[in-house]
Amino acid sequence: MDRLEELKNKYQAALRTIQQRGVVLSHLHVQDNKLFIQGSAPSEGIKNEVWNQIKAADAQYSDLTCDLKVDSSLPQPQAAAAAAGASGGGAGGGRTYTVKSGDTLSKIAKEFYGNANDYNKIFEANKDQLSSPDRINVGQELKIP
Predict the structure, then answer these.
(1) Torsion-angle region of residue 32: left (phi > 0), alpha (psi -120 to 50) or beta?
(2) Which CATH number is associated with domain 3-70?
(3) Which residue positions in the chain have pLDDT lower than 50?
């Protein structure tokens, strides 16, 4: 297996997040024996999501160079889900989020609001399906107020 494939396998969760969350890559190749990723993320939260996946694969990420910028003109990946879910309620932005393995309400709040302590906003908006802010399930669709 060549070095590019080896590194893509190692960081496959981060690369999957990049693909699913609308990050636009300008470079993905091996440079100086490291995986070189360069591109633009639609939001700071998505950029942080990619970095969390990178650090989960290798906390030192000594074999990776990642240069992600935030470009708010990129389409937000939540938009399609929001449009689909917005028909029923009268509440705010209509964003939704699908819970992934390892998520907590605090982690999701940090992604969307920049502050983990705002987790209660998400809990309050989802009391119809959550009994406790500590109990969320992979695959759950949460409303993000």
Answers:
(1) left
(2) 3.30.1340
(3) 79-92
